[in-house]
Amino acid sequence: LQQQLHGYQCRAAQLMNPGPAAVATVLRGSQDPDCGSCAATFEKVSISMIFASVGLALLESTIGFSEKEAAEVPLWLQTAELVVVGWFTFEFLLRFYAAPAEAQHLSRRRYLVSFCGIIDMLSVFPYWLSKFAGSDSILGHLGSIADLHDEEFRLCRLLRLLLLSNYVPSLGLIMRVLQDSRIQKDLSVALYVTATCWLFFATMLHLAEAGDDRHPEMAHRFRSVLSAMPFTLIHLTGDYPLVDYTVVARLVHVVMLVTAQGLVGVAGGIIASGFTRELKEYRAQERERRRNATKVLGRCVRYWLFRRRWMKLHGALKEQAQRSQEAAAQAKERSSLMFRVMRLVHGHTSIRVRMA
């Protein structure tokens, strides 16, 4: 019911905002079944720009963009950066304009505070703010801050890799699985059990190692439960940088390793079941969409056949009516006095001609 209401709300928003709805169709790319060549081209260019920004970020981290090396930056690299940032700015403006017609936003304010909106702003705003560095305005002060942390802000463009889920549905599968309330409930229970085991084994290792006189470093590391928790967490992951344990502590580690494998297996099973359920629902939706498309196609074919038969019937009825009108007109003409007189005169004239 909530999905149906949300769908009605989205359709109402698209009807109320025809301009943003048209732009949103282009922005959705191949995810829209009715996308055209323009939407497909926009999707390819956007994906290419995202990977180009990643390549530029890697090159910039190698070459360096500090004040001492700014003059040594190749011109082609600066031009490529300008093109990429210009495209991201153009895409941000399009998404901001089309936000009222988007199902996940429905307003421009929600888009600005959403995950995609924040990534878009972090990708373009520091670059343009750095152009105002040196002026006495507020933008100048903000530009100075952006210019001071220029390399850090440039690396924020790597976050645009997360926006590939707008064009590749499989990348958004993880987010949909984690947003499932059933998965969140199961993971919260598993997280609670993991935290309990973490605290329990940290306490056991503290009791086993705090009084170890042969290894004072180990006794210092496990002097309290809080100091033992980081090392216990490392051991729960399966890594063992520390091995100088007492016999009792080693027995605790045996139980801890078995428990850790079970905890990892439980979490993995929960996530795997979420993927299975999500893929099952996705396939069911695809089958329903294809079934609906088949119904629509069959309805169109039946309508075309009905229209064709109706046009034939209408033409036949029209032709029959025209013939009936012509026959009635001829009958009316033959029943008139003038027609009979003309026929009588024509008959006498024909007889005289034959006699002559």
UniProtKB/TrEMBL annotation:
<dbReference type="InterPro" id="IPR028325">
    <property type="entry name" value="VG_K_chnl"/>
</dbReference>
<keyword id="KW-1133">Transmembrane helix</keyword>
<feature type="transmembrane region" description="Helical">
    <location>
        <begin position="110"/>
        <end position="129"/>
    </location>
</feature>
<keyword id="KW-0631">Potassium channel</keyword>
<keyword id="KW-0406">Ion transport</keyword>
<dbReference type="GO" id="GO:0005249">
    <property type="term" value="F:voltage-gated potassium channel activity"/>
</dbReference>
<feature type="transmembrane region" description="Helical">
    <location>
        <begin position="75"/>
        <end position="98"/>
    </location>
</feature>
<keyword id="KW-0407">Ion channel</keyword>
<dbReference type="InterPro" id="IPR005821">
    <property type="entry name" value="Ion_trans_dom"/>
</dbReference>
<feature type="transmembrane region" description="Helical">
    <location>
        <begin position="158"/>
        <end position="177"/>
    </location>
</feature>
<feature type="domain" description="Ion transport">
    <location>
        <begin position="41"/>
        <end position="247"/>
    </location>
</feature>
<feature type="transmembrane region" description="Helical">
    <location>
        <begin position="189"/>
        <end position="208"/>
    </location>
</feature>
<feature type="transmembrane region" description="Helical">
    <location>
        <begin position="251"/>
        <end position="275"/>
    </location>
</feature>
<dbReference type="GO" id="GO:0008076">
    <property type="term" value="C:voltage-gated potassium channel complex"/>
</dbReference>
<dbReference type="Pfam" id="PF00520">
    <property type="entry name" value="Ion_trans"/>
</dbReference>
<keyword id="KW-0812">Transmembrane</keyword>
<keyword id="KW-0472">Membrane</keyword>
<dbReference type="GO" id="GO:0001508">
    <property type="term" value="P:action potential"/>
</dbReference>
<protein>
    <recommendedName>
        <fullName>Ion transport domain-containing protein</fullName>
    </recommendedName>
</protein>
<keyword id="KW-0630">Potassium</keyword>
<keyword id="KW-0813">Transport</keyword>
<keyword id="KW-0633">Potassium transport</keyword>
